[in-house]
Amino acid sequence: MRGRLSSFAAWLAFALAFGVTPDAHAQSFIDRNAMSRDEIVAAFVDQQLSGIYPSGLPWSELIRADGTSDYREGGNRREGRWWMRGDQFCFRYELPMSGGCFRVVRIGANCYELYAVTTSGTAPPAPPNAEGHWNGRMWRDDAAPTCEERPTS
Questions:
Q1: Predicted structure pTM score
Q2: pLDDT tens per residue across span 116-138
Q3: Which among 142, 93, 133, 98 is positioned nearest to 113, based on CA atoms?
Q4: Which of 1, 35, 110, 115 is most buried, taking the most CB atoms under 10 A from its CB?
């Protein structure tokens, strides 16, 4: 146990000295692969999407050109609004689901991961040991999902 603590302390000292954060790898992955505003609009507007949360809970959402959306999760249905904030895909729903803004990363030909961002536009701190740190994975219903593919960078 003492060896693990000293190893962690050494890593922490290095990280603080050089500005490394535990989610630096995830951040660079998002920055390198995030879709632009135009790519997001072209891929998702007037599309029915399906997806899963990291817990495995499925959801679906219709993204309409008029800025509205129809979100479904289990027996719950929420009408919402969507918009773009720079290259962030944002949503707002009636409570209890308030919404949020996300960077979108294309993982395969028809697979996308959503990464939450704060109001300042940065990713919130990732929970420890949360592989990938994605908040949702989705695909368009007009084609077969390709979520088994992974990008090389």
A1: 0.72
A2: 987 555 554 444 334 457 899 99
A3: 133
A4: 115
